[in-house]
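Regression test case RT-17, inverse folding.

Input:
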């Protein structure tokens, strides 16, 4: 699938250099000189396939499940006409300027990835996904997952943006990069969570069977795992993890980082850095 290859190449670059993603996502976007016409319009389009979606500078969007692949653009006529639109073998790209409000509504039978950037904001209501799903939310964007998102595997990459919702998956991998704000609940059999720089994450009532948590710099993660779990925590820098759980816990707390925990915990490994310049600690709440 050509569209899939295109987006995944961009995202592979993103993981190596998030700044490169920002420049890629912003390509073709310049400060808008478009003047509102004062006349509203609606444009409807239908496509043979949409497998992946990239939205850049879209201030209001909805992606939901439907029998056909459809797109609707609503807004001031001048703003709608200024939207850049391309569908390359199922890879739908839509670019605008968040200062030019245009409402974008998309329906698809299924989807494998969604990429949001440059102040893009909206809702995702797909429900059940047959295949693995990857989400990229970067650079002042936000996503609300309205329906419970069910998929075999979920991969989230979030930077300078916000994501919240309910998920249900076998495997979930999350990377919270610079200034990510993540609020998730639901269930994941296996969780891999990496949180960096000044990112903040809340996993309130997320049931997990096994979890690997890695935080660094000044990241803060607060997690409440209400079921029985096996959790491995590694903290670096001045990051902190506040964890409520029952089950098996191991931790490696380094530098000036901290772990505060509560619940019925059986420790299988506990290491706290105690060097002259270290101020790490583990404490029970």
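Golden output:
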């Amino acid at each position: 699938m050509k569209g899939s290859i295109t987006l995944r190449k961009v995202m592979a670059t993103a993981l190596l250099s998030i700044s490169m993603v920002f420049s890629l996502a912003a390509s073709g976007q310049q400060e808008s000189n478009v003047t509102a016409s004062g006349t509203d319009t609606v444009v409807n389009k239908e496509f043979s396939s949409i497998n992946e979606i990239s939205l850049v500078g879209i201030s209001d969007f909805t992606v939901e499940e439907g029998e056909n692949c459809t797109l609707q653009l609503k807004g001031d006529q001048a703003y709608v006409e200024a939207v850049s639109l391309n569908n390359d073998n199922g890879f739908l790209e839509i670019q605008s300027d968040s200062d030019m409000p245009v409402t974008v509504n998309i329906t698809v039978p299924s989807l494998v990835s969604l990429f949001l950037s440059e102040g893009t904001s909206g809702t995702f209501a797909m429900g059940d996904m047959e295949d693995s799903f990857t989400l990229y939310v970067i650079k002042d964007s936000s996503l609300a997952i309205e329906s419970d998102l069910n998929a075999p595997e979920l991969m989230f990459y979030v930077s300078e943006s916000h994501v919240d919702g309910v998920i249900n998956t076998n495997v979930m991998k999350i990377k919270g990069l610079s200034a990510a704000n993540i609020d998730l609940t639901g269930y994941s059999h296996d969780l891999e969570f990496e949180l960096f720089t000044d990112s903040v994450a809340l996993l309130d009532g997320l049931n997990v069977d096994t979890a690997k948590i890695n935080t660094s710099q000044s990241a803060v993660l607060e997690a409440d795992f209400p079921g029985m779990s096996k959790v491995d925590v590694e903290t670096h820098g001045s990051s902190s993890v506040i964890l409520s759980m029952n089950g098996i816990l191991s931790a490696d707390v380094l530098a000036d980082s901290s772990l505060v925990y509560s619940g019925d915990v059986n420790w299988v490994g506990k290491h706290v850095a105690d060097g002259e310049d270290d101020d790490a600690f583990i404490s029970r709440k």
